[in-house]
Design brief:
Elements lengths: L2 H11 L2 H4 L3 E3 L5 E3 L3 E5 L5 E5 L5 E4 L2 H12 L3 H30 L3 H42 L10
Antiparallel strand pairs: 1-2, 2-3, 3-4, 4-5
Amino acid sequence: MDINKLENFFKKELTTELKDVLMINDGQNNYELFGKYHISPTSTGYFKVSLKSTHDTYEFANVRHAVTWCIFDNAKKYGEANRIKDLDLKLCSMEVDLAIHKKMAKNTKDTNNKWIYIIKLQEDALKKKMMIKEINSYINTSKIIQAQKFSKTKKPGFNHMR
């Protein structure tokens, strides 16, 4: 079947209720969510979210963060969606900080500087752990949001025959 015919069918036939729970994975790390968002991998290893209505794009470090952002944005929880973008960016930055401090601690000959870098490494690790915990709480909440939406969608109006 032609992909355009399939897409037109979905646009015409799917109700708004069903679009609110529809997530399609094409098997090549491309995702279509809620008829509004398209997630695709970039050449740099990130995941780009494109909004169909506004053509805005956002990049995330991994697909879980991108999907979580889409769920909150779709639920009109914009404060939480912005926090997810911020946490994703901060986690990427924290990875760089960890790598730099680790390299500096390894390469420095001065004992005082070595201790400073070791302390910085510990601080970075603690911050990263706290950010991961927070973003995981958003991921779990997004699962709950989707489960609630899924349970609210109307079930088909027919019974299975035995």
